[in-house]
Amino acid sequence: MKSRHKRFIIIVLGLLVLGAAATLILNAFRSNLVFFFTPTQVAQGEAPRGTAFRVGGMVKEGSVVRDSENGRFVVTDTNQEVKVHYRGMLPDLFKEGRGVVAQGRLNDQGEFVASEVLAKHDENYMPPEAKHAMDQAAARKAAETVKP
């Protein structure tokens, strides 16, 4: 075999290994990707069924129900609401009227079953996605009240 053929085989094998590595990296990235949806988007059916996603907004006043191992609450963007069920201890900073982001899936009844609940860590912080959702919902509500 000529040295030119050996170089060609080495280059082809290198490209195959590089392609396989890129495929594995992209597959791992895709499987760990979690999208954010607002309660309005969830109510409109834009959120996926059967795959994990995040929903965020404010915890509705008077909606939190806790027992020994479960928590139920409602997340709102002032336009729509999503009922959330969480099995486990809610974070210490979790309170009504504060920002929250929950990660999980929708069940058959349309209730969001959270696997993780993230509460804001101080009074000046709200997750950027939740803040943007709240601002959009407030703008939609203001536009609806202006219409004759």
Structure report:
This protein has helices spanning 3-31, 39-43, 128-146, and strands at 35-37, 53-59, 65-66, 70-76, 81-87, 99-106, 112-119. With 148 residues, the protein is an alpha+beta fold. The protein has two domains: 1-33; 35-146, OB fold (Dihydrolipoamide Acetyltransferase, E2P) (Beta Barrel). It has a five-stranded mixed barrel with strand order 2-4-5-7-6. Strand 6 (99-106) and strand 7 form a beta hairpin. The N and C termini lie far apart (84 Å). The mean pLDDT is 83.
Give me some keywords for this one.
148 residues; alpha+beta; OB fold (Dihydrolipoamide Acetyltransferase, E2P); 2 domains; five-stranded mixed β-barrel; elongated
At the third CATH level, what is the topology name of the largest domain? OB fold (Dihydrolipoamide Acetyltransferase, E2P)
Please tell me the overall pLDDT.
83
Task: Give the amount of beta strand, in percent.
Answer: 25-35%
For the record, the CATH class of the largest domain is Mainly Beta
- Can you list the strand order of the major beta sheet? 2-4-5-7-6
Main sheet: strands, sense, barrel? 5 strands, mixed, barrel
Helix fraction, binned, reads: 25-40%
Number of strands: 7
Distance between the termini: 84 Å
Number of helical regions: 3
Q: What is the structural class?
A: alpha+beta
Topology:
Layout: H1 3-31, E1 35-37, H2 39-43, E2 53-59, E3 65-66, E4 70-76, E5 81-87, E6 99-106, E7 112-119, H3 128-146
Parallel strand pairs: 1-2, 5-7
Antiparallel strand pairs: 2-4, 2-6, 3-4, 4-5, 6-7
